């Protein structure tokens, strides 16, 4: 297992599943909320989000979790989908 993308609606258990899968496999886990938002739910700029996402995608192994239908996540969802 090299790359895993977990998507779903808010409250569906994505983060819990990603954390447990990361513990079981040793793969690093990345949460979309932490890429899209600074503390206090302040949204990062599109340039910063894109750069952070590309940096993670360049890695050989990862678990990515987050929603896909909400507006700020749609572009990075497509990027993640192509990376898997």
Automatic annotation (TrEMBL):
<dbReference type="InterPro" id="IPR052922">
    <property type="entry name" value="Cytidylate_Kinase-2"/>
</dbReference>
<dbReference type="InterPro" id="IPR027417">
    <property type="entry name" value="P-loop_NTPase"/>
</dbReference>
<protein>
    <recommendedName>
        <fullName>Shikimate kinase</fullName>
    </recommendedName>
</protein>
């Amino acid at each position: 297992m090299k790359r895993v993308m977990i998507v779903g609606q808010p409250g569906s258990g994505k983060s819990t599943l990603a954390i447990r899968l990361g513990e079981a496999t040793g793969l690093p886990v990345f949460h979309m909320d932490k890429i899209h938002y600074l503390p206090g739910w302040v949204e990062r700029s599109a340039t910063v989000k894109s750069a952070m996402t590309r940096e993670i995608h360049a890695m050989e192994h990862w678990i990515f979790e987050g929603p896909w239908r909400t507006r700020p996540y749609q572009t990075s969802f497509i990027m993640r989908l192509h990376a898997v």
